[in-house]
Amino acid sequence: SVPGTKVELTVSCRNLLDMDTFSKSDPVVVLFVQDSGSSEWKEFGRTEVIDNTLNPDFVRKFVLDYYFEEKQNLRFDVVSAGSHSTVLGAQDFLGQAFVALGEVIGSQRGRLERALTGVPGKRCGTILLLAEELSNCRDIVTMQLCANKLDKKDFFGKSDPFLVFYRSNEDGTFTICHKTEVVKNTLNPVWQPFTIPVRALCNGDYDRTVKIDVYDWDRDGSHDFIGEFATSYRELSRAQSQFTVYEVLNPRKKCKKKKYVNSGTVTLLSFSVESEFTFVDYIRGGTQLNFTVAIDFTASNGMPSQPTSLHYASPYQLSAYALALKAVGEIIQDYDSDKLFPAYGFGAKLPPDGKISHQFPLNNNEDNPSCAGIEGVLESYLQSLRTVQLYGPTNFAPVINQVAGAAAQVTDGSQYHVLLIITDGVISDMLQTKEAIVAASALPMSIIIVGVGPAEFEAMEELDGDEVRVSSRGRYAERDIVQFVPFRDYVDDSGNQVLSMARLAKDVLAEIPEQLLSYMKTRDIKPRRADP
Question: Same structural domain for residues 469 and 324?
């Protein structure tokens, strides 16, 4: 996701344990984050202490960097500061809660309530977390200006005016942030409308000075200074209701000439603001991610009972298929409210009569192919391995079209589908699959392909479409919706699976927020406002 998406967590507790005999507890919350490498907990920060309450609402907030594609585990310890010592004794422990940052963001309106646990035999109350994305001010401004009666600077003909915008910095210096085009040979130019991020214009500080210089363009680059004026974002934004006219002043002329009035005027004709929305805005507005799994049951994987098979699960280790499914699924499930995942297999012969299927439900239930949680999917997958016969060919199109059918039913932005295909990459229906992907690119869905095994995955790279946009019969996919990764890049020699699976999930999911945004943008769908 966009690096530096900062999320602010606000913490409250309700019905805390009462430890103090004479007054109520004096709670403080300590946040620990789990280091993804070593999985040890490090203290990240703590709230202020609030004296004598069992229902604290803390003012001090935690600001965390948020990455959609990582599992960011948090631990909140609630302690009573009782004796106001900085060392926390066991007698002061009021309970704790474990939660992933994605769970808070994925819950309704970004609010999550968790029971506190950890004091044997006692009800410890609850902790309430509210996640809000910090506005690094994502607004974008569009404005248009014109000028009247500017000073004539050119010996032959009139001036060729253009404007230069500067934002002021904390230390009083100015940084150039925009130049308009040059309008030739006129003292009354009308410049084209232009857009600029509010950040660039004033760094999010609405009252900071914005300085604007007016120049006369000269071919040799020695542009003549006509004059200047100053304003601020707040002042500019008032132009939404009326024209604002600025006097263009030239300080040198002002000093020299008694009768000097100005060097012309600049009028702000229009000014409008739009927000750039982020992935978090949509999730908080209630957009649900629906996760579907499709697993390759073709004979090229090898007989599941043989250790050389990609489906082989030893008593000590999950198969590559199961590992990939778990790694990606465990992160996505935080954003799926019902935690029910339709799961299919393709390329097998089914009992009793051996008919070949390219989208059979792993749970063997045609009417409801959904499994409960990632664990449910794993269970059904292992069950299917025991009952079906691996066969072929390897067809992706049926299951892509199946998910596309579901995605096409709700296109208002409230539902977004992610299809995870795990395969050995030997594809038989490349043309139909490209056709399916081009059609699906107009729908609220993304496709993740994880390639397991030793094959050369050229066909999968082609479907990924990062280098060349996928096309079918002269039609190009309207957006890039496929992300491919080879599983073998993530199996490290040290055998530290936890780490390599976290990296796999990270690379696989990294493009999803952008892909979701590209769908919303092309359809002009705004996030629904989270109710306050």
Answer: yes
Among the listed residues 115, 108, 49, 60, the one whose alpha carbon sits nearest the alpha carbon of residue 82: 49
Nearest CA to 166 among 133, 217, 214?
214
Last residue of some domain: 275, 295, 318? 275
Q: What is the rounded distance in angstroms from the CA atom of residue 421 to the CA atom of residue 438?
A: 17
| Residues 286 and 528 sit within 8 Å (Cβ to Cβ) | yes
The verdict on residue 532 lying in a domain is no
User: What's the rounded mean pLDDT across residues 358-383?
Assistant: 96
Measured in whole angstroms, the distance separating CA 225 from the mean position of its chain's CA atoms is 45
DSSP string, 475-523: EEPSS--EEEEEGGGG--TT--HHHHHHHHHHHHHTTHHHHHHHHHHHT
Residue 318 sits in which domain range? 287-523
Q: pTM score, two decimals?
A: 0.70
Residues 347 and 254 in one domain: no
Q: Could you give the angle at the alpha carbon of 529 between the alpha carbons of 527 and 532, nearest 5°?
A: 155
C-alpha span between 5 and 67 (Å, rounded): 7
126 in a structural domain:
yes
Cα–Cα distance, 131 to 104 (Å, whole number): 6
Q: Check pLDDT > 60 for residue 87.
A: no
**By the 8 A CB rule, do 297 and 390 touch?**
yes
If we measure between CA atoms, which residue out of 383, 400, 381 comes closest to residue 343? 381
Residue 5 tokens read as 């998406």
CA dihedral 3, 134, 177, 149 (to 10 degrees): 150
Residue 22 binned pLDDT confidence (cut-offs 50, 70, 90)? low
Which of 241, 275, 309 is where one domain is finished? 275
CATH number at residue 450: 3.40.50.410
Q: What is the amino acid identity at position 385?
A: L
Which pairing describes strands 244-247 and 265-275: parallel, antiparallel, or unpaired? antiparallel
Q: Return d(Cα 270, Cα 73) in angstroms, integer.
A: 47
Specify if 123 maps to a domain.
yes
What three-state secondary structure class fits 325?
helix
Which helix (H) or strand (E) segment is 161 a member of? strand 161-168
Q: Does residue 336 share a domain with residue 266? A: no
Q: What is the mean pLDDT of residues 450-460?
A: 90
| Six-digit token string for 275 | 């927000």
Compute the CA torsion angle 390, 483, 455, 474 (nearest 10 deg): 90
Give the strand pairing for 174-179 and 161-168: antiparallel
Q: Are 489 and 324 in contact (CB under 8 A)?
A: no
pLDDT at residue 275, rounded to an integer: 80
